[in-house]
């Protein structure tokens, strides 16, 4: 796909991807959705916090 390049390791296995956002501009929303999924997946094992805990923490930090 034009605008997408892979970085490979010594065994020629894909280890990273470089996305030229300017080249694939018409697919920007799809790329953003894909990245959101990756971030959510990477955080699935993090401890869960209730909205009340988050709100209290934000107030304490002066962000709410």
Question: Would you kindly provide a written description of the structure presented here, covering whatever features stand out?
Answer:
- With 64 residues, the protein is an alpha+beta fold.
- The chain has one domain (4-60).
- Helices cover 39% and strands 17% of the residues.
- It has a two-stranded antiparallel ribbon with strand order 1-2.
- A hairpin with a 5-residue loop joins strand 1 and strand 2 (14-19).
- The N and C termini lie far apart (43 Å).
Provide a compact summary of the structure.
With 64 residues, the chain is an alpha+beta fold. It has helices spanning 28-42, 51-60; strands at residues 4-8, 14-19.
Percentage beta strand: 15-25%
Low-confidence stretches: none
Number of domains: 1
Helix content: 25-40%
Number of helices: 2
Radius of gyration from the alpha-carbon trace, in angstroms: 18 Å
Instruction: Trace the largest sheet across and list its strands.
Output: 1-2
Number of strands: 2
* Structural classification: alpha+beta
Task: Give the CA-based shape.
Answer: elongated
Q: How many strands, which pairing sense, and closed or not: the largest β-sheet?
A: 2 strands, antiparallel
Terminus-to-terminus distance: 43 Å
Mean pLDDT: 92
What is the string of SSEs from the N terminus onward?
EEHH
List keywords for this structure.
64 residues, alpha+beta, two-stranded antiparallel sheet, 39% helix, 17% strand
């Amino acid at each position: 796909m034009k605008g997408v390049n892979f970085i490979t390791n010594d065994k020629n296995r894909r280890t990273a991807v470089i996305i030229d956002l300017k080249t694939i501009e018409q697919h920007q929303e799809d790329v953003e959705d894909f990245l959101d999924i990756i971030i959510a997946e990477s955080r699935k094992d993090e401890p869960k916090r209730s909205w009340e805990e988050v709100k209290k923490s934000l107030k304490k930090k002066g962000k709410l």
